[in-house]
Structure formats: C-alpha cells, structure tokens
Design brief:
The complex is a heterodimer of chains A (304) and B (308). In chain A, 74% of the residues lie in helices and 0% in strands. Chain A is mainly alpha-helical and 304 residues long. Chain B has two domains: 26-64; 66-304, Orthogonal Bundle (MetI-like fold). Chain B is mainly α and 308 residues long. The chains are: A mainly alpha (304), B mainly alpha (308).
Chain lengths: 304, 308
C-alpha cells in the first residue's frame, strides 16, 4: 500500500512542477523566491557571524589554562573556567537523573495506559503543552520556593540548580518521548498482546526498546537546552565564579553560562577575551550534543 | 474447536481448561501503573507548585506595598515601565522573526524538495539551540557597537532595546518557522492541485491558497513566538538595560520584566525582604501573561488540527 501511495504522490509532485513552469519566471515570482531564500539563510548568516566574531575575539585564549584554571580577578589574562565547566557537567548529570526517568514514566503512562477520553488526562495534556512554554526564569522561582519548602537554606547548590533545570526540561522530555512512542506502529503492540503479554510487558519489552532512538534524541536535545540556560540558575543563586570544584549534591557551584554572564559586567579587555573563548567552549558542548542527537536520529530511527 | 476460539482473556466461562488471564493478579504491575500515573500527575503538581510558590511571597509583598504602588509608572516597585519595555523588545523581535520565520516556513513547505527539507530544517532549528547568554553577549559586544553604532551610525546607548529585540528576533525565528511549516504542510495537496489547475503559479498558490488555509496554525506559531519573546531572559538582561525606563524610543536602554527578575535575584537583597519579594510579584505577572498567550496558542493549534 505504502509503495503505491508513494508512487502516486511522486507523480503528483512531478505534474505540479510541470504545470506552473512557464509562469514561474515572472519577475514577481523570482523576487518572492529570493525573499524566501533570504529569510531561510538570514538566521544561518547571523549564526556564522556570531561564531566567527566570537572565535576571533577569543582566539588569544584558546589554551589549556582556559579549562584547567579557576577564575581569577587578579590575573585576568590567565583566568579559567574549570569550576564552571565541572559545574555544568555536574548539573547535566543530576538534571538527567531527575528529569529523564520521571519524564519517560509520565510519557509511558499518557501514551500506553491513559484513557484519552477521560477529562483529567486531557487536562494533563493541555497542561504539558503549557508547561513547555513557561519562561525558563519562572522555573528558577519554583526551584527557589521548593528548596525553601524542603528546608534547604543554602542557595546556589547543585541540588537547587539541577532541580530548576530538571523542571525546565521535564515537559520537553515527556513530549518528545510521547512522540517516539506514538511512532511505534500499533501492530508491534498487538502482536505482543495477542501472545498473552500484559500492557506493561508489552511496553517494557517491545514498545520502549523500539522507541529508544527517539527518546534518546529528545532527551539529548532537552539536556543541551538545559546546559545553555542561565536564567533559572541566576534566580537559584548560583555564583558567578568560584575557586573550588563541585563535590556533591549540596556543594556550591557555578556553571559555564553563569560565568560568562558574570564576566560581561567586567570592563577589562582580558575578561572579554576570556568570555569569548568560554562561549566557544559552551557552543562546542551544546552544538556537539545537538549533532549527537541528529546522528542518533538519522542512524537508528527506523521508519516503520 | 469451539474451545480454541473461545479460549483467551475474554471468554472461558464454564469451559474447562480455558485460562482466564484477566483473573491473574499482578501486584507488581499495579504498583508500576501507580508509579507511572504519579509521574504523569507530577506535571499538574508542577503547575500548582508554580502558582503556590509565587503566591506566598506575593501576598507578603502586597502586605507592604499597595497595588497602586506596584501598578504605577515610577517608583521602586513600579511594574508598568517593565511591562512597556517588555512590549517594546517583543514588538521589535516579532518584526524580525515573523517575516523571516514565515518566509523560511514557506520555502520549506512549498518549495524545498523532500531531501532538501531534511537538511534545511535542522539547519534553521540550530538557531534555537544556541544558548541565550551567547546571544546576549553577541548583542552587547557585536550588534550594538559594530552594527548599530559603526555601520548604521545610530545614536544608541551601551544597552538598548533595539539590539536586544533584533537578536531576540533571530532567536525565535526557528520557533515560528517550525510550527508554521507544520501548519502549511498540513494543508491538503488537493487544494494546491486545484490552484495549479486554475493556472496559478507557485507563488500565487503559496500566498493565496496555502497561506490563508493554514492561517490559524500560522497564528498559533506567531503567538508561541510571542510567548518565547516575552519570557526570554538572558538577552534582555545583558543587552536591553538595567534601568526602568518608560521611553518608547528603541535606542534607549530599558529594563524588561525578565531583566528585572534576573537583576534582582542576582543582587544582594536578603531573602524575604520586600525588595526580594518584588521578584515573585513580577514573576507571577510574567507567568500569568505567558499563560494567557500560551492558552491562545494551544486553542489556535486545536482549530487548525480540526480543519482538515
């Protein structure tokens, strides 16, 4: 069936191209197409300018001291981002630990168990769409209140930061996991159910394994968003710079975007240079994660 | 033979040897189901949590500061200048992002071949992956001094709404492009074929047939972009300014709602003080504003899904 549909669609597309061809060359049409090309590549051009400009500014500081040294006010020319990079890695780990199992569990319930006709499940649905669009900084306020409620008085800890980021990416993880589960065809589940498996057995042994590439892609994209985000961390009270490594859940930390943010208020040129170099490090991390997600999607995702 | 057809979970009444699988109790699975449902309900708990987390300090805040002082145009607790600044920056961002986002969406949906789309869409979406603090730094150190002051010769301040708005606009291009592309791709092929059959070319079909047909989805895309722009923090905190300013001149520096929250939270105010609680009052206002915008967007998406 699918082959027939594809062939039919292709024929249709080809005839379309043939139909309007003589009129496609009018000046208006060409100007329109040029405008579309411009809007498509405008963003990419900005991104290239951004990366090139930042790389040129940060070039003098592409050395190992940038990642091995702690931040220093006394010697701006050798200031480093060791605490920030380690902090970001810590935050990423704990954020994943909090958000990923919860997110997958919620998605599995909504996709495999919940009765979508029930009003409360529809409320969850709308609520999720809404949560995904709540400003990041509001999650910072929520994390502050939650920490206070649980009786933690210290601010700027690994726990506070990763709690804020986990809340931030939870809706993203749930929504992408649901999409991944939904793309697993009905027949896979039916086959398993017909052999006598329960809904949970089917989910655990068939549906979830089949959806892993999609889930991994969504989770990695969520995490890459989390590590670049500074707004909730500012609210949670993370320090702009520290001179020690993070040790555990309750230790004070800083993060790479936080360090960059705090450096912008410094007027010395050396700090600007260091911030530019740190931005390149952050971009490599974030865009690297994005690339990883795309590779996983293209390599492992099956089209059923 | 009848035994085999009736055997299984649903039958088996009175037939010997037919196992009734439904009867088998699986306590572990019941537990699993409860755990899963709890995780799903957590999303509701988060929303309630946000409201509760914000309301407590806000009540304290209004114990000390009157409504009049909060919703006034000047003074320490005035919120109106923050709202106008947010509005200003958001309008500039939308002026950039709406035409460019829709243009990109039209190309991806109506012009690009399937293979080109597979490559072009992630490229556009890459823009959304760049951390906002990076955009903010770019606005502050490149857009304002190099682009606005040197190349365009504008008399702008060190921080100004224009640079922040422009860069914010670039950041939300992918949000608008991606959703608008979905909406236009959902327009049935038959409508395009009808248009081509009437002798319209691709541009006419795109603008006069596909665009109007996808309008509610496109509106949803723009509204979601609006919500992103209102809630974005780091770009405006870095590049828009840290002083309350009622000015409607985009060349001036002005503090937005999110910029104010970042500024106040990063400052030295002790937790529980009135100055600190202002944070939650502004946060609640921001949450309510974006909530209204999001609900409109979700309703619009519903409508375009039902249309075809």
């Amino acid at each position: 069936m699918s082959i027939a549909t594809t062939t039919a669609r292709r024929t249709v597309e080809r005839t379309e191209v043939a139909t309007g061809k003589s009129k496609e060359r009018s000046p208006g049409s060409i100007a329109f197409l040029v405008a579309l090309w411009f809007s498509l590549f405008f963003g990419v051009m900005v991104l290239i300018v951004l990366i090139v400009d930042t790389a040129i500014n940060g070039a003098p500081r592409f050395d190992t001291e940038l990642i091995t040294n702690y931040a220093s006010r006394v010697s701006p020319e050798t200031t480093g981002f060791r605490a920030g990079i380690l902090g970001t890695i810590f935050l990423m780990g704990f954020t994943a630990l909090f958000a990923v199992p919860l997110g997958i569990a919620a998605a599995v319930y909504l996709e495999e168990f919940a009765d979508n006709e029930k009003w409360y499940n529809r409320v969850i649905e709308v609520n999720l769409q809404n949560l995904a669009a709540v400003p990041a900084i509001v999650y910072g306020l929520l994390a502050v209140a939650t920490m206070a409620l649980m009786g933690f008085s210290e601010t700027g800890t690994v726990l506070g930061g990763s709690l804020a980021l986990a809340l931030l990416i939870l809706p993203v993880v749930i929504i992408t996991t649901r999409e991944a589960l939904r793309s697993v065809p009905r027949e896979i589940r039916d086959g398993s159910l017909a052999l006598g498996a329960t809904t949970w057995q089917t989910t655990w042994r068939n549906t979830l394994p089949a959806a892993i590439p999609g889930i991994a892609t969504g989770t990695i994209l969520g995490l890459s968003r989390a590590i670049g985000e500074a707004a909730p961390l500012v609210v949670v009270g993370l320090a702009g710079s520290l001179r020690f490594d993070p040790e555990g859940l309750m230790s004070q930390i800083t993060a790479l975007p936080m360090q960059i943010y705090s450096l912008t208020s410094q007027s010395q040129e050396d700090f600007r240079v260091a911030a530019s170099a740190a931005i390149i490090v952050l971009l490599v991390l974030v865009l690297g994660l994005n690339a990883l997600a795309i590779i996983i999607r293209n390599k492992f995702q099956r089209s059923w | 033979m009848s035994a085999t057809t009736t055997a299984g979970p649903s039958g088996g009444a009175g037939l010997p040897g037919a196992p009734d699988l439904r009867r088998r109790t699986r306590p572990a699975e019941a537990v699993i189901k409860v755990v899963l449902r709890t995780s799903a309900l957590l999303s509701i708990a988060i929303t309630v949590g946000i409201v509760l987390a914000l309301i407590g300090p806000v009540i304290d805040f209004f114990g000390e500061v009157t409504f009049g002082e909060f919703f006034s145009t000047e003074g320490r607790f005035a919120v109106i200048p923050l709202v106008t600044a947010t509005f200003m920056v958001t309008v500039i961002a939308l002026l950039v992002a709406v035409p460019l986002g829709l243009g990109a969406a039209m190309y991806l949906s109506e012009y690009a071949s399937r293979r080109a789309r597979k490559f072009l869409k992630p490229t556009v979406e890459l823009l959304a992956g760049v951390p906002s603090v990076v955009y903010g730094f770019f606005a502050l150190t490149f857009v304002t001094p190099n682009l606005l002051q040197d190349i365009l010769n504008l008399d702008v301040g060190f921080t100004n709404a224009l640079a922040a708005g422009l860069v914010l606009g670039v950041m939300i291009i992918p949000t608008i492009a991606s959703l608008a592309e979905d909406a236009m791709s959902a327009v049935p092929q038959a409508m395009r074929q009808g248009s081509f059959a009437m002798g319209a070319n691709r541009m006419q079909t795109t603008l006069r047939v596909v665009f109007p047909a996808a309008l509610s989805g496109i509106a949803a895309a723009i509204v979601l972009g609006l919500s992103r722009a209102v809630g974005e923090t780091m770009i405006v905190a870095l590049a828009a300014g840290a002083v309350k300013n009622m000015s409607l001149d985009p060349r001036d520096g002005m503090q937005t709602m999110t910029g104010f929250i970042a500024q106040t939270a990063g400052g030295e105010n002790p937790v529980g003080s009135t100055a600190y609680n202002t944070l939650f009052a502004v946060g609640l206002l921001l949450f309510v504003l974006t909530l209204i915008i999001n609900v409109i967007s979700i309703a619009l998406v519903r409508r375009f899904r039902q249309a075809y």
